[in-house]
Design goal:
single chain; about 350 residues; mainly alpha; 3-stranded antiparallel sheet; 13 helices; globular
Length: about 350
């Protein structure tokens, strides 16, 4: 899709009070009023935005939090087949390792031997591993679905084949980026669990409490900073055809000076995801628990069925939640480029080129 690549060069002279826009060669100037795009030309080198343009799921102007949430929902509704298909495939593949570990972990006593059961029960621990697997899938999809979101902003609905064709060339860098960020989020959390387990084994209640409190604050702060400053890397990698380090640098640059605005948006989107997740997952967990009671399995088999039931329920629930989160992150990327680079003008020109610039 044209218009979503990196800034092509120096802009023409702009009269709006905002940072210079990165426009395609030739600019967006006309000599008269053009009602189809809501622009009024002032000579060959000047442009004035008169009206906001909405060829697709968003208005082509800097967005509010409500615009981001509404756009993410509309992206799913208008292209549900491709979005849910891609999400289910990625989630299933990324969850397989966690499901296997959960099944194997139900056998033997290694979990108790480590002392981890004093901090977190077996089912919750494997649920945490599954969460990291889903976190990887979410970070991957935040980049993979950015193409679909970008096209939806222009009023198009790319199919699964078109989405795959656009992402395929960036597949390995996108996997590497998602793995790197997942590792950065998972290691501190797993290290905290291990430290609290060691403190508990040493019969030091005070040390365990202090480690849990201080360590929890540090892990939360680290996760918030890492996610906020790097959340746009996936979209930059796919839409601008960048590599991993370059995409991380690009995300860091786009979020500079906008940390709290982006953090609040991610926090609200995350809370909405949690609510929807539990609404979908709770009935599935109840069904899994009832089946386990009816079958009257042995303790080892019951633990395995419980872990697998949790995995399946989580997978199905996240199939609904992850596309929404990925779409919201992609829209935050578009919004930041609008604010910093006048990207709304580029999108208006792209919308006109595709015949949606009404």
């Amino acid at each position: 899709m044209s218009g979503f690549g990196p800034p092509p060069g120096a802009p023409l002279e702009e009269t709006r009070r905002r940072p210079p826009a990165y426009l395609p060669p030739g600019g967006l100037t006309t000599g008269a009023v053009d009602p189809s795009v809501g622009m009024r030309g002032r000579g060959p080198d000047r442009v004035l935005l008169v009206t906001s343009h909405k060829p697709g799921i968003i208005s082509l102007r800097p967005m509010t939090l409500g615009d981001v949430v509404d756009g993410a929902v509309k992206h799913i509704r208008r292209n549900a087949g491709a979005v849910f298909s891609a999400t289910l495939v990625v989630l299933a593949i990324s969850s397989v390792p966690a499901i296997l570990v959960a099944a194997l972990g139900a056998q033997g006593s290694w979990f108790s031997d480590l002392g981890a059961d004093a901090v977190i029960d077996r089912t919750s621990f494997f649920g945490l591993l599954l969460l990291f697997g889903i976190g990887f899938a979410s970070l991957f999809l935040a980049g993979a679905l950015s193409y679909s979101v970008g096209e939806a902003a222009l009023g198009r609905r790319p199919g699964l084949a078109e989405l795959w064709a656009q992402v395929r060339g960036q597949l390995l860098p996108l996997i590497g980026l998602a793995a790197l960020l997942t590792l950065g989020l998972a290691l501190p959390a797993l290290l905290l669990v291990l430290l609290v387990a060691l403190a508990t084994q040493a019969n030091s209640l005070l040390a365990a409490v202090l480690t849990s409190f201080a360590g929890g604050l540090m892990v939360a702060a680290w996760s918030a900073v890492l996610l906020t400053r790097t959340c746009l890397a996936g979209a930059a990698l796919v839409l601008e055809r960048r590599m991993v380090v370059d995409a991380l640098n690009r995300s860091w640059a786009l979020t500079r000076g906008a940390f709290w605005r982006i953090f609040v948006r991610l926090l609200v989107v995350g809370l909405l995801c949690v609510v929807v997740f539990w609404v979908v997952q709770l009935p599935l967990l109840v069904v899994s628990s009832v089946l386990g009671d009816i079958l009257s399995l042995s303790p080892s088999l019951d633990a395995m069925v419980s872990s697998l039931g949790l995995a399946v329920a989580t997978l199905l629930s996240m199939t609904v939640v992850v596309p929404f989160a990925a779409g919201a992150i992609s829209l935050v990327y578009v919004d930041q480029r609008m604010r910093l680079e006048g990207f709304d003008l580029v999108l208006q020109r792209a919308a006109r080129a595709t015949g949606n610039g009404s």
